[in-house]
Amino acid sequence: MAKRVSVDRWLFTTTLLLVFVGLVMIFSASAVMAKEKFGSPYHFLERQLGFAIAGFIAMWVLKGVDYRKYKHPAVVFSLIAITMVLLISVFFLDRSHNTHRWIRLGPASLQPSELAKPALILFLAYFLEPRLKAIDDWKKTLIPAMVPTLLFSALIGKQPDLGTAIACFLITLTVLFVAGVKLRYFLYPLALVPPVFYFAVWRVKWRHDRILAFIDPFADPQGRGFHIIQSLIAVGTGGVTGAGLMEGKQKLFYLPEPQTDFIFAVTAEEWGLVGSLLVVALFAIFCYRGIRAAVLTKDAFARYLATGITAMVVIQALFNISVVLALMPTKGIPLPFISYGGTSLAVTLASVGVLLNITQQTD
């Protein structure tokens, strides 16, 4: 019989620290640009702070809701349906930044692709739990489990947002692996990689250019390699202890969107190696506590929820930091809790609320 214990203070504190770091760095990265464009250096900070407050309220509320209440078809399929409708609806709205990613709600905006990740995690946890004895059955388990992921990934990739589509796919594979799917079944999707890479990346000029920039950014330092080079300059300039908070130079119209995709580069420049490792350590602690929650519970539904939420945060953090360090081609994936983006922050904090509730339910 499960018993309620205290909330995981390590997980809660780590989340709190990551959000605090995010607010500080968003202000540092965006103050000059915000003053130039909007007349106030606090423009991005105020908006992110509002979403942080909303996200913490959602986290606190969901922390007190028994996770088993989500194990109901009305909850699971309603969330899937709502997410699907939102992902389709963006194509009927005006483009923003040459993409169909946002639904404008007055001064705020909603990014449906951020909802796709927790929706998939909840669906997988609900769908896989009663099928553990038939986990390798193609017709009854594997193909049906992959259908929402394939649909969501196709719609998100069409926006276009290939990075988030890949993240959704990797989160799904992580949950399937923890559920006990044999390793040989993970080899079959690899057959799809060459044709998908060719048509979705190599045949699309701007993605093709990103691959070339990743291979050799200095071949075109003023063109396709500019962003990666500026990121590496920021990281290298930081040295061991950094230039100091607010003292970074690369954020001043050199780095693209320094408050979002390249915020870790700003952090590395101003906080140095010490500060960068501190951020990485916080994500490592989050990963450990999330895995710990998944291992300690004997409830398969809770295990898959905890695995998916942890993977959602860690995979995105790994992608973002790798892009900044030129270990991966450039992708538009935010650094969880830290990058500017209201939907991402609020949804991630709400998901952590579910994870915190799981940590209170032990056997």
* Main β-sheet description: 2 strands, antiparallel
Give the terminus-to-terminus CA distance.
Answer: 6 Å
Ranges where pLDDT stays below 50 over 5 or more residues in a row are none
H and E string: EHHHEEHHHHHHHHHE
Spatial ordering of strands, largest sheet: 1-4
Task: Determine Rg (CA atoms, Å).
Answer: 20 Å
Mean pLDDT: 89
Q: Give me the count of strands.
A: 4
Tell me the fraction of residues in β-strands, as a range. under 5%
Question: Could you characterize what this model shows?
Answer:
This protein has helices at residues 9-38, 43-63, 73-89, 112-128, 138-158, 162-179, 193-202, 205-215, 226-238, 263-296, 300-324, 342-360, and strands at 3-4, 103-105, 108-110, 361-362. 65% of the residues lie in helices and 3% in strands. The strands form 2 sheets. The protein has a two-stranded antiparallel ribbon. Strands 2-3 form a two-stranded antiparallel ribbon. A hairpin with a 2-residue loop joins strand 2 and strand 3 (108-110).
Give me some keywords for this one.
globular; two-stranded antiparallel ribbon; 363 residues; 65% helix; mainly alpha; single chain
Summarize the structure.
Helix content is 65%, strand content 3%. The chain has twelve helices and four strands. The strands form two sheets. The protein has a two-stranded antiparallel sheet with strand order 1-4. Strands 2-3 form a two-stranded antiparallel sheet.
